[in-house]
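Appendix B. One record, verbatim.
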Amino acid sequence: MERRDTKDFNDAKHSRGEWDTKVVAVRSKVLRFCAGFLSQKRRGVDDLAALSSRDAAGLVLDAGAGTGAYSVWFASRRACRVISVDISCAALQKAQGSALSLGLAQSISAVCADLHALPFREPNFCAAFSVDTLGHVADVNKVLDELLRCVASGAPLFLHSECGDYRKRWPDRMLMHRLGADLAAQQDGHDALRDARDLFMLYSRRFKIVSFVNPAGYLGWFLGYPEKYRPAFVAAGLTGVARFLSLCAALKKTPVLGVIMRFVNASSNHLENYFGLTGGGSCFAHVKKPT
């Protein structure tokens, strides 16, 4: 099987636009709050920006930057220099173009490198974040060791990782039983997902845990990611559900209904966090390097 953390695999995904999170620079507190409600990833990066050093000369690490959506999100909130690191040159080229068009070229620098061996000798980063990345790497332990090595003492980090807890419930457990594999995860490059409990242990061995949540995501399969689940239902022969997901995917692209679907999905995630319901496919953690 092709390794999913290779440069060629990542370049191909980004070239086809499959991993291109929307790049926006928003400075309005109201709009950032709304975006943070809809996306816990953006909210996590925004909270990190509020906590990090206010020194304009401070260096911030975006580990697994992709096309730079979260580098731009951070830099539009905090005066700093974000170092965007990714193994895909194709992604970083898009990231540089976006930063230039948004007037943030002086605040964001791209570095093409493997997260397993970051090219930084000193722990000079005052903050770091990683979004949509740790579920793709070959060795999570090594990447976390590199993050620990590169950030300064007491530096805050925001870590979002894909995890495999969702496989224990419907519809994923049923699909895996029928297909003998997690088709959606394989297509997206998630070949070595860990459970949330394992990730918590890996983080706690290196960092001080400030917060750690793993929302259950009960509605995510049709409100959040219908386009990813549809091929799995087709392969499983469940054409009725596949048609329903095709409709959900089409509605998700519309201006009004798409926002409503995202709002309902996000609201369910917040309620899950409030009531302590866990077991979804994402973990959100705020941590600090020990002093």
